[in-house]
Amino acid sequence: MAAPKVDSSGESLPEHAAGKWYSVPDLRLRDHCFTVPLDYRDPGTSLKISIFAREVVAVGKEDQSLPCLLFLQGGPGFESPRPTEGSGWILKACEEFRRGTGLSTPLTTSSMLQFKSARDLADYLKHFRADSIVNDAEFFRVRLVPGSGSWTVLGQSYGGFCAVTYLSFAPQGLKQVARQNEKYYKKYPQDIEVVREVTNYLAESEGGGVRLGCI
C-alpha cells in the first residue's frame, strides 16, 4: 500500500488508510498509513506527513479484542523489520515506522537538499525528535486500540529512549506504568529519594524542566 505524500497545498488527505490482511507463517499482517501534522503544536496549519505502521496478529485472532504491544525499532534512522514468521509469543502488536524512516515520509539526503539554509533545515529536523514520535504513536493508538485503550510499549535501543519519552509526555497511553514503578520502588526503596532529587533539579534548572509520569 503506497503511503500518502506530504501535502503542502492544504488539500485534504485521508487521516487513516488501512490495507487488507496478508499472511506470513503463523501471523496475519495489515498495513496502515496515517496522515499527521509535521508540527503538533500547530496541527491546523502544519504541513502533513505520512506515518506507516504494520499491525501484526496471531493467525485466527484478527477480529478479537486483544491487548496490543507497540514495537519501536532502534536507530535512530532505521525502519522496523518485517516479520517473516510467528515467534510464539505475539498475539497482537503494532510496528511504527518512525517519521523519516522506512515507508513513512522519508528523511533523505535529497529531501534535505531542498532546504535553502541550515536554519530552515534545522527547523524541519526538530520535528523528527522523540517527542514527535510519541505524538505519532498516540495519534494512531486511539485509532487502532479498541476503545482507545492503553497499550504496552517495547523499545529496542533508540526505541527504548522513545519509550521513556512516552512515559514523560503521554503516560495515559501506557499500560501498567504505575504498577511497574511500584514494584521497582518496593525492590529498591533507596532510589525514591535519588529520583526525586534528580527530577527536582531538572525542573528547577534554567531552561530545563522534566515531565515524568507516575514517578
Automatic annotation (TrEMBL):
Keyword Nucleus: no
Family annotation (Gene3D superfamilies): alpha/beta hydrolase (3.40.50.1820)
InterPro entries given in the database record: AB_hydrolase_fold (IPR029058), Serine_prot/Carboxylest_S33 (IPR051601)
Keyword Hydrolase: yes
Keywords: Hydrolase
A Gene Ontology molecular function term of the record: hydrolase activity
Recorded family membership: Belongs to the peptidase S33 family.
Name of the protein: Proline iminopeptidase
Organism: Rubroshorea leprosula
